[in-house]
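Q: I have 489 residues here and want to know how they pack in 3D. Can you give me a structure?
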Amino acid sequence: MIKNEFRIEHDSMGVMRVPSAVYYGAHTARAMDNFEISGQRFPAIFIKALGLIKWAAAEANMQLSLLDKVKGNAISKAAEEVFEGKWDDQFVLDIFQTGSGTATNMNANEVIANRACELLGGKKGDKFLVHPNDDVNKGQSSNDVIPTAMHVSIIDASLHLLLPSVRKLEFELESKSSEFADVIKIGRTHLQDATPIRLGQEFSGYKTMISKSIERVEQALEGLCEIALGGTAVGTGINTHPKFAVSAIQKMNEHMNLGLREADDHFEAQSSKDAVVAYSGSLKGLAVSLIKIANDIRWLASGPKAGIGEINLPELQPGSSIMPGKINPVIPEVVLQAAVQVIGNDVVIVTAGFSGNFELNVMMPVMIRNILDSLHLLARSSEAFASKCISGIKANREKCGENIEKSLAMATPLALRIGYDEAAKIAAEAHKTGKTIRETILDKGILTAEDVTEILKLESMTAPKNLQAAPEVKRLSPDQYYSVDKHKK
């Protein structure tokens, strides 16, 4: 054995050997032995949130004269390094651990304490110099730190990862709505022909689905701005200064400007995770919208010869190991898989949400894992959908025109002139003979050619005269959004 390969640390349970090179301590080492479950670690953005909280706590404790400046500045500097991601490799614990996340809170306390010892010229493990509980965790409990870090990391990931990606998708769909405004195609209900619609109108519907999903995400995000910090163990704020939470939250907002505020009721904030459940529901709603849009895109591009084929997707890669020339809708399929995983994640989050007893939820780590996974999946798949699929879609105008002319739904406007029953007979005969509705009605001689041309005018079918245009709603660009939103970084 190499000399000094391990150091000896003491905690409330006794003596623990810890590798000399690491910054975590005895509590983390014990947890590593106990929680070898999945091999999954907390995402870096969550560790960043822990660093922010510990930095703000140190600054608040110094401001309140609860921590001397020399020690406090060292803790503050070490926590800042955690925030910056410098010590991500020191956060070694499995997601599946104690339901409060205490082990990971202590992981942060120990890493920061030992790094602060170094900054003060001491050695790792010197608790007389900087103590992980008494100094780094001063005024806090795992029971208010972990839910606070959960909210902070969700807000951070939402504002700087998810929403920019989804707004890009919204923009690309709106662009296609304008580009395809003059392309008239057959509509479909029940997977059967329906009356004509413009391809741009279909894409307008997709764009609005995403716009409304964004609004629901933003509304749910507001509830996460309330944080539990200051409640300590059970919500009473035992062992913390009455001004600690206000001071620490102010400093967190100064550092990242996330619009955080102290919980109105700390007992709700620590015993309930309803705000996270609600936010996950908004992500599930976005996932459902993405599934609908991606499936429609696949159907519209099906073929290219024996399917609907009304749009052409960008050709990204060969689609078969055996069929030459086959190109598959790979990006919509990626979106579908990511979206169904998000729906599955939501089931876990909902179940975890009602799994707290009395003053504490005891499934927070798995909630953190799933909600951040959902955010990442939706952000990356939306980005790919926008840039590698939607932006490159082309309308197959010829196929759109062919499908309309062949459709029996073209008999619909005839009903106003000759009645529903007669129009139905025309449709049945056209189906039997293989002729178009236009050809069949002209063969019957019921209407003049001029009348038929006017009645079957596609433009009038897709924009009825009695349809009042809805007022245009101008959405803010991403730059404008961040310039007026309170979450601006």
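Q: Anything worth noting?
A: The chain has 19 helices and ten strands. The radius of gyration is 30 Å.
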